[in-house]
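My hope is that you will study the protein record below before we discuss the fold together.
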Amino acid sequence: MVGAMDRAWFDALPDQAAPARPGGGRPRLRRPERRQVAWRAVSLDQLVAADHRVRLVWRFVEGLDLAPLYAGIKALEGRPGHPPADPQLLVALWLYATLEGIGSARALARLCAEHLAYQWLCGGVGINHKTLSDFRVGHGAVLEGLLVDSFAALLRTGVASLERVAQDGVRVRAAAGAASFRRHTSLQACQERAQEVLARLRRELEADPAAASRRQAAARVAAAEGRERRVAAALAITAALHAESQARGARARPPRAASRDDKEDGAGGGGPPPAPEKEPRASTTDPQARVMKMADGGFRPAYNVQFAADTRSGAVAGVAVDNVGSDMGRMAPMSAALATAYGTRPAQHLADGGFAKLADIETLARAGVVAYVPVPEPRDATRDRHRPRPGDSPALAAWRQRMATDEAKAIYKQRAATAECVNAQARNRGLTQFLVRGSAKVRAVALWHALTHNMACTWRLAAA
């Protein structure tokens, strides 16, 4: 609303109307008239072009098997209950939003009310951000099945193959700040404060349950309960990390037998006492996030998202999410997951030098998978890294010799053209920071990006 002083200030401005020309009248202009009432006989389908890609999204969704999503609907014909939005519509909205780089449920809800393409998808169905947010992260298993189905469809048509896959990891910033990480002792103090606040709020709510601010008090109680749960989860994680660190240190430093001098001095071992171990930390915002080294060299809370894509079609065959900042040891689990999903392992597995774990290469070789991973540079610069080392198994010796051949170098070039392309397109579609918390929700968002990528690959391959 424009106040009286603002109206007076605008009235003091000079007339903004078009000035009259010398020797003639004022120009005739078409000026907006927003209060005029008009009747228009139009439909949403006429307002969207026939070649608009929102129609391609809807056509793709029509071909998906969404039976598991319909099975959970409780509103049935002849029974009471408010009918929910069609899962087919919600899938189409999130696929199109991901394609356009929209990662916020609130932003998507606004677009459903304001943008023509999203209005065409909704077709008059009202959508709120809570429904969109819950649907996005609440069906991880269904999304994984849809991803497998989308890639299997490309396999059946012959445009995709599991003969050769390329795997790469991308570290994505978590929805947690660096200041939210606390040590175990600090988390215990935070838990005590959270429990005190929660108990006080509950007492206030029980003392005056019919107050006008009951809903606000209930919201404060729910927020306090959520914080108490997150702090408890962070405490459990720091305790597990501490136990794991102690076990790893015990394995790495076995107790040494005391010498005669040690026994005489009453000591149990020589050397200086071990340095005090750093206390593990966890985030009170997202306990499952970990601080990782990012692509720009900085350290931030993040998740490690792994994509495995077919080198022939560029489509994503598998997705994995963890909170480990290294890619070491990620090839064998991905190969096993692909074998479970499609009934066969990829014949060739491509990955960069960060994946070069000897145990993984041996595991893949036993399963009949040929690994194309660069051999790390040895510490001794005079030693040929492709020459088998003493103690190498036949699989490791063959891997070192294989990576020195021109054929292996030509095959390995396909890794960047496939895996790096998947990562780059995911980044371009907004996979720069997660807006959700917890590995399960983060995995669901990564699956949306993979399914969107396969949808775009389907269009490209169909056009070709």
